Every structure is written in C-alpha cells, then in structure tokens.
Amino acid sequence: MTNTQQEILRVSDLSTRFFTQEGQVNAVADLDLRIERGEVFGIVGESGSGKSVTARSIMDLIEPPGEITDGSIEFHDSDLADAVRDDYPEAVDGEYVDLLEVPPEIRESLRGTSFSMIFQDPESSFNPTLTVGEQLAEAVEVQRRASSRPRSTRAKTEEYSFGSFALSTVLPSKKYVTEESRNRAIELLELVGIPDPVERADEYPHEYSGGMLQRAMIAQALAGEPDVLVADEPTTALDVTIQAQVLDLLADLQEETGMTIVLITHNLGVIARMCDRVGVMYAGEIVERGSLEDVFDEHVHPYTEGLLGSLPDLDGTTGRLQPIAGNVPSLLDSEMENRCYFADRCPKAMEDCLDHPPEYDAGGDDHEVRCVLAERRYDRTRALPDGYFGETERAAADKHADPDRTEEDVQPERAEGTVESSGGDRL
Amino acid sequence: MSTETPDTAGAGDAPADGQPLVRVDGLEKYFWENNSLVDRLLGDDPVAVRAVDGVSFDIQEGETLGLVGESGCGKSTTGETLLRLQEPTAGRVEFDGQNVYDLEGSDLTEFRRDAQVVFQDPFSSLDPRMTIGEIVQQPLAVHDVGTEQERERRVRELLERVGLSVEQLDRYPHEFSGGQRQRIGIARALALDPEFLVLDEPTSALDVSVQAQVLNLLDDLQAEFDLTYLLISHDLSVIRHICDRVAVMYLGEIVEIGPAADVFEDPKHPYTEALLESVPRASTDEQDREIETLSGDVPSPRDPPSGCRFRTRCPKVIPPEDIDIDRAAFRAIMDLRERIEGRDISLETVGEDGQFEFEDGRLAVGDRSEFVATLKERVLDRDLPARDDAIVEEALAELAASDWEAAAERLRDEYETVCERQNPPLSGTGTETRAGAGTGTGTGTGMEKAGPSSTSDGSSADEDHPVACHLFAESGHRAPESDSR
Hints:
The complex is a heterodimer of chains A (427) and B (485). With 427 residues, chain A is α/β, with parallel strands linked by helices. In chain A, 32% of the residues lie in helices and 19% in strands. Chain A has helices at residues 51-59, 78-85, 104-110, 122-125, 132-148, 162-170, 179-191, 197-200, 210-222, 240-257, 268-274, 292-297, 302-310, 392-401, 422-425; strands spanning 7-20, 23-36, 40-44, 66-76, 92-93, 96-98, 115-118, 228-232, 260-265, 277-282, 285-291, 360-361, 368-369. In chain A, helix 10 (240-257) links the parallel strand 8 (228-232) and strand 9. In chain A, helix 5 packs across helix 7 (179-191), helix 5 (132-148) runs parallel beside helix 9 (210-222) and helix 7 (179-191) packs across helix 9. A six-stranded mixed beta sheet of chain B has the order 6-7-8-3-9-10, sandwiched between helices. The longest helix of chain B is centred in the middle third of the chain and has 18 residues, at 208-225. At the A-B interface, helix 10, helix 11, helix 12, helix 13 and helix 14 of A face helix 7, helix 8, helix 9 and helix 10 of B. Chain A: Residues 384-427 are annotated as: Disordered. Chain A: The complex is composed of two ATP-binding proteins (NikD and NikE), two transmembrane proteins (NikB and NikC) and a solute-binding protein (NikA).
C-alpha cells in the first residue's frame, strides 16, 4: 500500500435515507470512503448495517422512498471532467467529478462503462426467458452504443414502445442485436471460465448452475470494461468450493484488467482472502477502516473485535465464542440517539460514548476508527452502569448466551491501537 | 458404518462400547420425478432423485454429530428422514434400540417427544398468528402434558432459559429478530424435554454475532439437559466448533466420518480436503495461502456418476495401474472424457468460421489432422506425455467423423479408472471390502457400503475414522480388476 496511489473514488459525508411510513431510516450516515485505483476494498458488516445501501448509492441505484440526502461521490476521470467542466463547473474539482452534482443522464451513462455491479443472487438477476448469451449481448450492445455516443443516454437503450411489443408477439424475437455482440458475449463467457461458451451462450439461465450463473453475471458486468466493479455479496449464495472458484476468478480478473473492486460481504474470511483495505460498517457508518492488517490484527473498535470474536474457528482452538450481546439496532431516525450507536452492545461503553464519536486516527497509514478508545484507555470508573440503556432483552440475552463474560473478563488495561483479547488471538 | 469394529458390521447389533442412541443403517431416500398419472399414461419412467443413498452412522448418547456438505448433498433430507418426517425408501433407523419406522401408537408418540428438530429459517418455521407463548406451549398441549398452569410455568421457564424475557410471552414472531426467533424455535423444541435434537442449519440465517450467541446457547443446553445433537450445516467452522464427530456428505453418501479433530486436522477423502481448503480463513495470512480450487459443479443426483461420486471433480482420481501419468494430466484427460461422453463439445464451432465444413456430420478426410489439432488446443489446456497425447488425438479424430461413441470408447478403453468402476465403501484403511465389480455402477440398492467384511487381515484400520475412497483401499486390490481391460 503506498500513499502515491491515486484515489479513484472519494465518497464524503454520504447520507442515504429512506422515508418510510414508520419514519426516516438513516441507512447510511456521514460515510467517508477513499478507494484507490486498482485495489480491492472490502466493506464488511452484518445485515442492516448499510453496506448494500452504500454500494447502491455509489451505483446510483437508490430508489424511492430512498434518497441520497447529503454528501458527495467524486469519481476520478479526467475525460469526464473535461466533458462536463463547462456545463457543470461546480461538479468538477480538478480531475474529479462529483457524481451527485451532474444530471442523472450523465450518471447513467457511467453505469456499465465506469461502474458495474454484481449482485448476490444470480438466479434472480437474470431474465429466465432469454438465453444467457442474449442477455450478455444486450449488455455488450448497450455499452457499445454508449461508447459510440458518450455521455448521451438516448443511444443507450432502444425505445421499447407499444409498437415493438405488438411486433414481438408476431415476429420471432430478434435474438442477438448483431453478430459482433454475440461474439463478444461468447468471449466474455470464455473470459470468466465457462467451458464451451459457444454452446453455453444459447442456454437459458435455468440450465446453468449457481456458480456458472454467477460467472455469467460477472461476465455481464465486465461487458463495459468498468473501472470500478461493485460486488455485493458475490458469493453468499454459493457453496464453499464454488465460492473459492468465484473468488479466484475475481482476483484473476482484477489482476488482468486492473479494475478496482468494492467487495461487500458479511463474511470476514472472504474479506481476508480478497481485500487490500477494509471498512467495517455498523448502523450506517464505517466504524473502523484501514488496511487488512489494521482491521484484523490491530483493531481498536470493540465492534470489530466482537465480530472477529464471534467467528468459530476452523482450526479448532476451541473455546467459548465471544459474541456481541443484543441485536443490530434500529436505524429509525426517531430511535437513534446522538451517541455511539454501538454503546448499548459494547462491553466497554463509557460515559464518553454518549457523544457521537468522530473518526479518530488510530495510528497506521490510514487507520481510522469511530471510537473513543482510539484516544483514551478504557476506564472502568467511567463505565456506564449495567442496564443503562434499559433493554431488558439485552440483560436476558447476556445472562444466558454469555454467562462467562463478566466485568472481570473485560480487559481494563489495553494499549492504544492494539488488542490482545481472546478475539484477536484466535484468528 | 462409523464407529463399530469390522466384525460387528452387518450384524446390526450393539457394539461392545454401549448402545448408540441413534443408529442409522443403509438409509435411502429417493424422490421420484415424472411420477404423475399423466407421466405413467404416457409411459414415461419415473426418475429417481437419490437425495440420500445408503447412509449409515451412529450417534452416541450425549455427543454431537455434525453432518456437513454442500447444498443438495442430502444432509437435510437425512435429518428429516431419520426423524420420520419423510418415509424412507430403504434402510433402518434405530432410536434407543427400536426401529423408528416400525413404531406405532404410543411408541411413536414417545419417539416424537424424544426427538425434536430446530429448523433453519426462523422466519418461516414459526406460525405468524400465534404468540410466542402459544408457540412454545403447543407441543405440550399436543402431547397433553401437565395442567394448564404447569404448562404456562414450563413455557416461562423455557423462554427464560433460552434468553428471552417472560414479558415477551404475548408478542408475535414478527416482533422478534432472527436470533430471537431461533431462540423461540429452540425453546419449542425443548418443551417436551427431548433426548435428541436435529439442528438443521440452526444458524445459517443469522449474522455472525448472533450466530455466536445461539451456538453458545446450544452448547449450554446440551450440557444442562444431556442432549444429543445431530447438527446439519454447510458451515465448516460451525461444525468444527460444536461437534464431537463429523460426517462429510457428498451427493447422498457419506464419504468420511470421524472425530471432529481427526477429520479437520487429517482429512483423508479428497473431497473433505478440498472442502476444508476452500473455506476462506478470517486472518491476515489468508492471501498467502495457496488453494487449489475444485473444478466443476456437483453432478445431479438424478444421474450420479458411477463408482465414486466425487470422481468427476476429484483432483486425485486414480489412473489405471499401468499408466504413468501425473495427477493433473490425468485429471485433464478425465475431464475431456466426460465431455465426450456427455457430448458436450460443439464441433461446428471449432476453428475459424467456415474453416471446417461438416457434411453429414463428417469432416473431409484431408482436414482431419488440422481439425484434431485445433480441437485439442481448445479442450485441453496442458501438454500430455507423448503416449497419452497420441491416444487423445485418436479419440478426437473419431470426433471429426462425429463418432462420439468411438471416441468415448477409445478413451474408456485406455483410461478406465477404479474410481468409476466401483463405489468405494466407507471403511477404515486397509480393509477388504469389494462387493463385486458389477454393483459399483450405482444401480438401485445394490450399492452396499455396508462396511468392512470380516475377511480383513491385519487391518491398520482407523476404525474411528473410516473414509470412502479408493486411495485408502489396499493397493493390491486394483490389480485383479484391471484384468477386464
């Protein structure tokens, strides 16, 4: 990791909210991200932590009632900067373009060619009535038209009018748009390691296995030769042996094309296998980020520690798991207090945690953490009393799920920046 | 067959080391496709999906047996069938010495009380229209246990025990998070004070931090109530964490079974090895760990491969004895064979457009050598030893005449491996177990994996840790079988 790496994506103060009947949900709040060109950046967190919303915000795939309410997403692309500088001077900063300041057509035109995304569930991401080859060719065609008339969305998709619908009921569907795009689709299938791509291109999604379909989806995402590939839980639906294949494939493709990958997953093993740098998300924020080593070995935030301590170990150095008590908090604005959102589950909650912590520098190159423990040691005299947050359920869960963990177990003496608790050791 | 000594196998009686609580012997569960009236009228033969195909194991009282495998390997079906939630196709399951499938009346009711199940998905396994108090109380009511007051007291006790608060008794499932719902499911399973719990992926719908809470809870409950668990999971680290013994399943069969520490530290079956290798470790050393990923997908249980079911993906598939070839090259040849046997190569698209013209499925003789070279380049990504290279070329030349049969035959003649002729029995190393070459192709119930026969001499057998792989059979066995070639 070098500092000279160029940042391809700078996300600052990003807030994405959902305005639902129950109230405003702060899915992502004040999120900062710096993603360097050519790296694999991992975002890890539990369900409901906002990792997928982050990915979709970057991709501009947030749909009502969701809305990006604040922040900027700056993308490094000097051509794009030149192209929009005259029309939208406020969006351009050097070679960076703030994607939230340019009109939706331009953002849309970047999709596929600059940003691309693969999803968790390949089975539901393909159209079951078209062959895989057709769907790939369609992506190829869309990208080809987009690049022949850049920054224009008119050419991106063919008009789908009532006329064409009526026609399609009479005439057989026009399969591949051109022979060229079909060939490119086959090339792409070959690139992602699908055996016999020529035949496979004419098969329907149900004839593919889950792993193959995930490969096909990767192929589709690569159709526009994107600079940034956002992979949202790309292997969660797959078995471990297939997961290993797909991860290998992603790593190979990344090496070959030099693209940047933003990998979103709940699986810490996948993060460890793939990523250069990691952000740990909790309740819509990144609570700790840094290099893989920073986060796995030198973590400061008790949540990171809790996540790692919750993992059963494959090498069998058994011991009792050290789970995090309680449950993922509600992100309803009305229920979120202005404090550290983890304080109610945190074994080291102190009075200081009642203020929402800023990002502290936790030592190391680019290691930042939203926890006061980065600044001061855990001080038991300042600890919040049990039941401070008044959750009966937490007490009950604690008592049974984790009777071993008493106050004595919490290590009061801890050096800043390092953790030597059981969670860290057993990695 | 798991823990018994060779001489007790087949007899089906209790081994000396105490009666197991659960004994599964040759359990089979097939599902039938094309089995509707219409299909029968049309004369279509039903197709068997062999979800569980001859599985045998014991579970000792108080232990936790893990059943691990990828999706579709039959692990959940095994769990459901042994609880008699599904009727088996064949085989027997003894619970406390009684055959579960023969039970009737009060004996069956008693079995239903003693053996309980916790399901994977806490979102669909609780009735949304019942309060959690009612849900946990229902088994008590069904089995008519105690008075109303006693039942209520029991429900409170159970909820407290699994870490829920009694005040939540009147709430509905949708008000709870996934982890809490799984606790409710566990409380319900415990209501009748069972001896045996089948845990079917109890934590796979949960986040890691919540998963850890539930695993700890299960641990505590086992110690407190002397429970015996069958834990079904695809997550190897969960299995490792709470199981005493582990059975690894692949395509309806157990390929390896043994104490958890042995299986994880010294896996024998190439599938177990690959499975363990595939799990990404949450550690900073992970990126330096070289892993050899398994190629291909799990074959369909409708038409499982003959012989050893893992042979289509096995990196250690055994070459015929007289052939000197390295593993990777042999694997490549076997992959090619498979594609030829499955006619899974499109000949029309070989070469540049219009380079090779097929007429009536045949290629003009003059083009053939060029065709073979082009095709070989496409289907084989490595160089073979000269002798094997020649054989492969001969086979590919048959394809130029679209003679798939001949091509497959040529390769089969040369490269038929013991792995495809015989389904290796699940046995300790070095035991004589061959049940005749004919039955190995996987027809019906002839696939006996009934374990070691008594002829074993000087078995260096690891009886606690049997494995179903030809690599662990005595090497001498392969010689006579090669005569058939």
